[in-house]
Amino acid sequence: MSRHAPKILDPSSNPLDDICPVCKSNRYLNPSLQFLINPECYHKMCSTCVDRIFTSGPASCPVPHCGKTLRKKGFHKAFFGDLKVEREVDIRKRVGEVFNRRQEEFETLQDWNNYLEEVECLVFDLVEGTTKEKMKAEEKLKSYRAMNMQEIEENRRAMMEDADLEKRRSQAEKEQARQRRLQVVKEEQEAKADLEKDKKKTLDLLATADGNAAAITRQAQKVILKKSSARRNLGDKVGNGSAQDSGLTIRGLKKKLAPVVEKPYDPFGGIDLTPTRYVLQDHYENEWLASAKNDSRHMAGGYSLQEYYSRTMFEAFSGLGVFIKDEVSQKQPGVPASVGSATAVEAFEAFGGNIKLENKTETDDVF
């Protein structure tokens, strides 16, 4: 049995990832070897090959069957181990620089979600789409940039301002935390010095005074507790007021409103259909309906006596408040009559104005 345990290799690791495809340099033989990638093709090669091939200017990718023109300034270290993830992150950054609208610009949440879905579909076409879909997505990205250049620049500046404001707010919070820590240390030192001073004063008083030692000690303890309590209350007041007096505010934020409780659907759009000229009762004595009330055969599915009462009372009182003669006298030429009295006006004119309808406040029971 060997003294050293065998080295277990990660099954997900690929030995070819540590070999430069151009010069075949191996990281196993050269531990300081650094690999760089270019967002144009994401082919990995060592930094020595990048300096040797692209220092003099743009050149084609030396990886076989690639041939894309690369520049030295485009090479950088890969942040992720998987180059597919690295490529998707770069694509999302590139798309995010163009489609940089914010939720405040949309009227409804549905519009904002539709915009996010459209951007996500564009990213998917650029990452996983076919060659035709990628070309179409690149053309869409290019045309959107050209059509909305001004808005893209304004949103970019707004995002930079928000980031700068967030940075300054974070720095201010850190500074306040540092000041609070220094204040706490200072207060602790002052409290410790004050406690030592009170102890020394108590010892001197016990050595020189002729009174009771226990009473002097109790009085000294009361003084120490009173000072510590006053110091603690002062520290709480200062701590509570530091955040309010800092003067650091964020402008442009929306006010937080409580969610509005959704009301049930109203098919009449809020129109009040409650009768004003009569009070609808739940029950009426009528000989015409006596048999129907006691016979279940007359009560078909969906039929209601209350609906009959409501319709009958509405038809009985529907003519009150309509004065045809006054409406005819006030009618201007060229202006059509209202919908409610157009037919009545025609009938009034047809009978020569002999119809008279008065507003009677007292009416007989329709039943």
Coarse morphology: flat
Put simply, the count of helices is 10
Strand content: under 5%
**SSE topology string:** EEHEEHHHHHHHHH
Estimate percent helicity: 40-55%
Mean pLDDT: 76
Outline the biggest β-sheet.
2 strands, antiparallel
Q: Would you give an account of this structure?
A:
Residues 20-65 form the RING-type domain. One of its GO terms (biological process) is nucleotide-excision repair. GO terms for molecular function: cyclin-dependent protein serine/threonine kinase activator activity; zinc ion binding. Mean pLDDT is 76; it is low at 1-13, 242-250 and 350-367. Helices cover 51% and strands 2% of the residues. By secondary structure, the protein is mainly α. Among the domains are: 153-242, no CATH class; 274-292 and 302-367, no CATH class. It is flat and about 110 Å long. A two-stranded antiparallel ribbon has the order 1-2. A two-stranded antiparallel sheet has the order 3-4. It has ten helices and four strands. A hairpin with an 8-residue loop joins strand 3 and strand 4.
